[in-house]
TrEMBL record:
<dbReference type="InterPro" id="IPR006016">
    <property type="entry name" value="UspA"/>
</dbReference>
<comment type="similarity">
    <text>Belongs to the universal stress protein A family.</text>
</comment>
<dbReference type="InterPro" id="IPR006015">
    <property type="entry name" value="Universal_stress_UspA"/>
</dbReference>
<feature type="domain" description="UspA">
    <location>
        <begin position="3"/>
        <end position="144"/>
    </location>
</feature>
<protein>
    <submittedName>
        <fullName>Nucleotide-binding universal stress protein, UspA family</fullName>
    </submittedName>
</protein>
<feature type="domain" description="UspA">
    <location>
        <begin position="151"/>
        <end position="291"/>
    </location>
</feature>
<dbReference type="InterPro" id="IPR014729">
    <property type="entry name" value="Rossmann-like_a/b/a_fold"/>
</dbReference>
<dbReference type="Pfam" id="PF00582">
    <property type="entry name" value="Usp"/>
</dbReference>
């Protein structure tokens, strides 16, 4: 799959503008068609009662025209840069309209801004980004940093599951000139229990070495199968708790994008997307691309 159609959801805020800039940058890199979408909420009747002498229909039309003009202006600026742009104003619930538009236009990537300083606290309490992830099936890029340049250093955590391999595949297609670090964190939660069960230190160490050997073999295979000799790709194996290793490597390698698979699809999406994905969204300051299964 190539990146041919990119959807940017914007609310005209500074975070929305970051999403527009990053999405436009990716569209230029991939010669992709760009869709700009703004969703107006369907305001309840009580709100209209407080508005001066306007009927709900008149107020809605006025807001719609204003949003359409703002999108038109943004689209014209991007078109001057040689980007093919379409724009649309929808009315409804943001996450539903974003996913509906993405589905009907066969979008390959959705780009959205983060939620500002309160993002970590609010993400799992019902933000547009989390709802879009939870109810949609498209890769979602959450833009947190000011997009001053192309992505240069990308981190892809893998656990050998299909979801994480989908993330690696997406990273290879989405970023053009970045170095891609494929990270597998080796955890041994049974180590302490083995000692308590009477295994000596040598046996525990042997078990640990076998896990590392298995991890190395797995990493060699996926880099071979997916990267096909791509010089941008380097594999990393670290021993420790996966979220801690991801956070440390993101800082040490100056990572500007993490691409990670969304876990779940039931049980409220594995307690909202799986613990590792959740930690990445909470604890890392860089952009995050979440790939749906």
């Amino acid at each position: 799959m190539e990146i041919q159609r990119i959807l940017i959801a914007t609310d005209f805020s500074p975070r929305g503008e970051r999403a527009v800039q990053r999405g436009a940058q990716l569209a230029a890199e991939h010669a992709a068609e760009l869709y700009l979408l703004h969703v107006l909420p369907a305001l309840p009747l009580e709100v209209f009662k407080r508005l001066i002498a306007e009927t709900p229909l008149e107020t809605e039309q006025r807001l719609y025209n204003r949003a359409k003009a703002a999108l038109q202006n943004r689209a014209e600026i991007l078109a001057l840069k040689g980007i093919r742009v379409k724009h649309h104003v929808a009315i409804g619930r943001a996450h539903l309209e974003i996913n509906r538009y993405a589905q009907s236009h066969h979008v390959d990537l959705i780009v959205i801004g983060d939620q500002g300083e309160s993002f970590a606290r609010e993400f799992f309490l019902g933000t547009t980004a989390s709802k879009t992830l939870r109810t949609g099936h498209h890769p979602l890029l959450i833009v947190r940093q000011e997009p001053r340049d192309k992505y240069k250093h990308v981190l892809v955590p893998v656990d050998f599951s299909k979801n994480s391999l989908n993330a690696l595949e997406m990273a290879l297609k989405a970023v053009m000139d970045a170095s891609i670090h494929v990270l597998h964190a080796v955890e041994m939660p049974l180590g302490q229990k083995m000692k308590q069960a009477g295994f000596d230190a040598e046996q525990v160490e042997h078990f640990r070495s076998q896990i590392l050997i298995h991890a190395r073999e797995g990493m060699e295979k996926i880099v071979s199968d997916y990267a096909h000799g791509d010089r941008r790709v380097a594999s990393l194996i670290e021993y420790g708790h996966a979220p801690d290793m991801i956070r440390e490597k993101a800082q040490a390698l100056d990572i500007d994008l993490i691409v990670i698979g969304k876990r779940g699809q039931t049980e409220l999406d594995e307690a909202l997307f799986g613990s590792v994905t959740k930690h990445v969204l909470y604890e890392t300051p860089c952009d995050v691309l979440v790939v749906n299964p």
